[in-house]
Design brief:
The protein has helices at residues 2-11, 24-33, 39-52, 56-60, 64-71, 77-95, 103-107, 114-125, 134-143, 151-161, 167-180, 199-203. The chain is mainly α and 206 residues long. It folds into two domains: 24-125, Endonuclease III, domain 1 (Orthogonal Bundle); 130-203, Endonuclease Iii, domain 2 (Orthogonal Bundle). The two termini are 24 Å apart.
């Protein structure tokens, strides 16, 4: 575990979220949009969305059609449009337009599940969490950092195995590793510095 984390840190020393944002509200919006959508696509969308609706108050008063026009290139854009507007309205009505910091309050917002709440808590407020997306789930279980069948079980096992002060960084390391080498269909095990420690690489060695 120590060696794996050390290698990941050396491979991805400046790991941060790929979602462009300048404040917690923008991060929340971007993360809601990122469900079944690449970060690259989200960043293209928010390039126009953020200037049009820079605050929760602005988005809360927006029409469905105006928001939809800007986010329609995202997957599930109809649902996301409705969720973004409703979420902004709740932020204004219950939180003075600010993004809440607690998991309970975040998960009460439309379009916000456990993973999204974790992303916002970690990246907006530096609250230690491990958000488990498809990359984290795949890489953690392949390497052997977790042996779980669900994202939630994976999260719990990673929190137990990884020192708390590394949770946020480890989340980013695993995502970047999944994108760079530990790909879903054709993992590049022959190029991976973690191969000697990886359960998947060892079991698939020729």
């Amino acid at each position: 575990m120590v060696e794996v984390l050390s290698l990941l840190q050396s491979m991805y020393p400046k790991a941060v979220t790929a979602l462009n944002h300048e404040n917690p509200f923008e991060l929340l919006v971007a993360t809601i949009l990122s469900a079944q959508c690449t970060d690259e696509r989200v960043n293209i969308i928010t390039r126009n969305l953020f200037p049009a609706f820079p605050t929760a108050q602005d988005l809360a008063q927006a029409s469905y059609d105006n928001v939809a026009e800007l986010v329609k290139s995202a997957g599930l854009w109809q649902t996301k449009t409705a969720n973004l507007i409703k979420t902004a309205q709740i932020l204004v009505e219950k939180h003075d337009g600010q993004v809440p910091r607690t998991r309970e309050e975040l998960e009460a917002l439309p379009g916000v599940g456990r993973k999204t709440a974790n992303v916002v808590m970690a990246n907006a407020f530096q609250i230690p969490t491990i958000a488990v997306d498809t990359h984290v789930f795949r890489v953690a279980n392949r390497i052997g950092l977790a042996q779980a069948s669900t994202p939630y079980q994976t999260e719990l096992q990673l929190m137990e195995a990884i020192p708390k002060h590394l949770w946020i960084d480890a989340h980013h390391w695993l995502i970047l590793h999944g994108r760079a080498l530990c790909k879903a269909r054709k993992p590049l095990c022959d190029q991976c510095p973690l191969a000697q420690h990886c359960s998947y690489a060892k079991s698939n060695a020729v």
